[in-house]
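Handout, page 2. Input:
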Amino acid sequence: MLNTIYNRENPIIAWWSGGVTSAVACAITIQLFGLEYVRIVFIDTCNEDDDTYRFKADCEKWYGKEIETISRIGTEYNNIKEVWYKFKSLNVAHGAICSSELKRTMRERFQRENKYSYQVFGFDINEPKRAHSMTMQYEGANPIYPLLLFGYSKKKCIEILTDNNIKIPRAYALGLNNNNCLKTGCVQGGIGYWQMIRVIMPEVFSEMAQIEHELTNL
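Output:
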């Protein structure tokens, strides 16, 4: 049945973000649909913690397949800070400008340029509203959510990775809830997140505070 629906011309795109939930969502997708019918893709902001790339290599061994990497950094932007200064903003009403420019725009471009049947996103059991929003706003993406299907939480994903001898990214060991853009800290993080960054990565906190002041003045 799968062979009549999915093929190399119309594979499933599974988005790998560097976090534990997307990592497990990709693994489930492979189990459900078959390795040859899944393309695993990573949008690199080039602002990720070095340990993310170790985690990526470990996941590739686990999956038995390469994770494709795409990025606007190096072609359209030199780094993430260039995005902030271009738009004179870190975070706006509809979200972080860097996420919109470096991730969403890149994903939509990839979607236009490649054939696919569905796209997989790693929203867990505590994120049904995010999944609903994705489904309603991006109907053409044909999104599916394996973690919601199985009722998996982030904690469960960490257990699955540990059971498969995959060391989780160090961001979680530091006490953070995500593994996004750790080189500068994630601008979408709330007060609690940045209070923690101030303690565990004071130099990063100070640099980002300075950037925020400069952008405000601009």
